[in-house]
Amino acid sequence: MRKPASKNPLKHLRASDLRGIAQLATEATTSVARIAEGVHQSVWDTLGVAGRSPGQTGGITGFVYQAVQGVAQLLGKGADALLATLQMRLESKQGTEPGTPQREAALAVLNGVMGDRLLSSKNPLATPMTLRHLGVALNWQAPPAGLKPRVLLMIHGLCMNDLQWGAQHQGQVVNHAEALASVRDSTPLYLRYNSGLHVSKNGHELSQQLEQLVSQWPVPLEEINVVAHSMGGLLIRSALHVARQQGLRWRGQVKSIVFLGTPHHGAPLERAGNWIDTLLASTPYTAPLAQLGKLRSAGVTDLRYGLVLDEDWQGRDRFERTHDQRQVLPLPEGVACFAVAATLAGKRSTLADRLIGDGLVPLRSALGQHDDARRCLIFAKESQWIAYRTGHFDLLARPEVTQQLLRWLTPAVG
Predict the structure, then answer these.
(1) Is the pTM above the cut of 0.90?
(2) Helices (DSSP H) in 121-198: which residue ranges?
(3) β-pairing verdict for 254-260 and 223-229
(4) Count of CB atoms within 10 A of residue 8's CB?
């Protein structure tokens, strides 16, 4: 009788991962202690017992909470120093081998949920933005051979990565990029980025990387076509806005963009999360627990209304419940724009369009439609397509989506 193959999750880890996990454990311990102390003091407040300051207990109790946080931070610094040395030694032996798909998927989710915190704390688990070809980040000092004058740029969504463009459908791998690149004689490039950052911050970075691409592409670049899933559609709109403001060259190379399930006007789940924050903060006993809701990243809160510009969030509390205050940003001029929307329903209806959608993004949001006419994104009728009985992530795997992309983007013959 054969023994089942062992499943060892440690084989997916790198030395830098252990260091990053240790940093997260330290932050988690101190954060939980602060929340517990806040709840504790809220109870004392109702009995008229004052603390050292709001949310902080006094006396022996306060000393205990301070000791827990102090010890956690001390141990965390010691572990970080030890693992930093170990990381340098092991990485010199590991070289630049790519991570396993399981590791990259886990990192993508972690970055989507709290990537802004990872970056601000200099956690090695934070994902840097890279343009990738054949699974490897582009190195302009030694660019790969065989690059073509046309580029097909694939941009993933929240909590995802570039490897997930190769999706499974009924036992077969579907990759929209491979089909399109073959027909358009293009080089497919995949963007990998920290989706927990503000969309506009990623937009600035992407704009600079694409400007570098135009200047260092080894053959004369003729065009850039973009396929963007979910948050990726907000990201490319943000980057194009930056390029227009700064007069960058790459913007003139962009010929078409296909938006797959992009929440142009936001997603209800983030709005629901914002409601939970408000409810938790409404009583003194649960107010400390509202801090848990504030762990979610800037990228996630940007999806409440589909924020794409710096002006949409700068100078504002992103957790405060407010109405839609975004700047109006139309689709980019001179670029052919197409929208693929999905719905779990079998046909359109008011309920399905507004509430059901593809399970994450309402159908009207994906089509750029808004009750305020100024905010509507104008896609030509022939540039819209709805995938019925299809979920948000199914858009990556359905052959019917590939066929629609080919119909839109296949060059005319004759």
Answers:
(1) no
(2) 176-184
(3) parallel
(4) 8
Token pair of 215 as six digits: 């200047």
Looking at the 3D structure of the chain, how many domains does it have? Answer: 2
Question: Is the residue at 69 inside a domain?
Answer: yes
Beta strands in 116-211 (DSSP E): 130-133, 136-137, 150-155, 167-169, 172-174, 187-192
Q: CB neighbours of 15 closer than 8 A, spacing ≥ 6?
A: 83, 86, 87, 89, 90, 91, 94
Distance CA 258, CA 230 (A): 11
Per-residue model confidence as pLDDT tens digits over 376-391: 999 999 999 999 999 9
Ranges of the chain whose pLDDT falls below 70 = 1-98, 271-294, 351-355, 412-414
Residues 85 and 153 in one domain: no
Q: Please count the residues of the chain.
A: 414
CA distance 74 to 86: 19
Q: 């190195």: which residue's tokens? A: 139
Q: Which domain holds residue 226?
A: 130-267+324-409
Specify burial of residue 15 (Cβ count, 10 A radius: 0-12, 13-18, 19+).
Answer: buried
